[in-house]
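Contributing new complexes? Match this layout with zinc ion.
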Amino acid sequence: MPPRRINDNLDDSDSDISILGDVGEGVSKGKGKGKAIDRDQAAKAKSKAKEQPYAWEASYTRSWDTVQEDEAGSLQGAVEDLIARGRRRRLLAPAGAIRRTIIRHLVLILDLSASMMDRDMRPTRFDLMLQYAREFVTEWFDQNPLGQIGVVGMRSGVGERVGEMSGNPQDVLKVIHERHKLEPAGEPSLQNAVEMARSSMSHLPTHSSREIVVIFGSLTTCDPGNIHDTLDECVKDKIRISVVALAAEMKICRDLCDKTGGQFGVAMNEGHFKDLLFELIPPPAQRAVSRAAGAGATNLAADLMMMGFPTRLPNTSPPSLCVCHSELKSEGFLCPRCSAKVCDVPTDCDICGLMIVSSPHLARSYHHLFPVKPYKAVQSLADTPNPSSNCHGCSVSFNEVALPKAGSALEGMSPLGRYRCPDCHHDFCADCDVFVHDVVHCCPGCGK
Ligand SMILES: [Zn+2]
Ligand SMILES: [Zn+2]
Ligand SMILES: [Zn+2]
Ligand SMILES: [Zn+2]
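Output block (do not edit by hand):
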């Protein structure tokens, strides 16, 4: 297969994501609307095969094959294209103030049925899912340090609790790291798994979100009862379900997402799978409707919740027992209310139940509420009286003259390599632009 076609493939998957951001109508059209549960993949392939290469149609590709050198043998063009994709996606994000949940509870449901051994995604769906799930968990905790994740597996017709709800990324990573314990077998049961996830979140307080993310590779589900009853229960409990399907769209999956306000997507290839999964990382906007129903008149008023900032003990302090593991150690954190010693924050105090967080955790969750505005790509310096000659972030000098750009595909890129903050009007280079928006979450020019 010529490399060009692979590139097309990438571009297509990208445009599909932006469709997802809309009402989700475009995707359902492309995937064949209202597909019955027992239809097989052939039907889907027929509807779309002409214009869209699917993962199982492609010959074996390596990630480095998709990066193309330009005429001069440089990778600049390919790298800039990746940056441009990121910029484009950022511009799609809503700019207005929305209410977001910072204390999130998520149950990750992994399909461990026999269909996960399919090799349409390399090396297998199962291995790819585990790899992406690990990256997802790491990134999720980085952006939602006050959140908790539990893991449930679907295997042999039952839901299996793989990992308890935990706020510690290491605990969660450990359970999905043990590959031999997750070996796929039998049929999945969507209903059993969702019921198990629902029961593990039933005790949660109202200020936290309840979310379920399902990675679903099978085209069947083998349920003990009516799954629509489970769906109604989830709507009542305000659980948001999102599904990333690996094979084809199933009506019940689409219904689960639509009725609970989650996102649904079918992964076309490995890259698209990751994009779909990682779109679920930023905290979802809270729906005003659901709050009005629950809390009556106090719709947009804030709920106050109690949090404590612990005292950190240095590892030179005298050893004492922690309340979480009953282990003798020196370092730890003291609950500000009952002075119990815990090993890790954020957590709920095991003695008095106070939520213990460190201030950096709180600050890191905060940036989602006030995202840095996207920088504007400067097209020409004609209307700038005194353009600065250096990047305001890293002091690298800007090009004086506009570089002729090879591809017209680089929309959202500045020919001068300048990106301007709409508030403080400082110019930044492309690297700083990405760094500010993806890592710092605060404009160095205006401090916002
Ligand atoms: Zn402990
Ligand atoms: Zn306490
Ligand atoms: Zn810079
Ligand atoms: Zn600024």
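Reviewers usually confirm one structural detail per submission. For this one: The radius of gyration is 24 Å.
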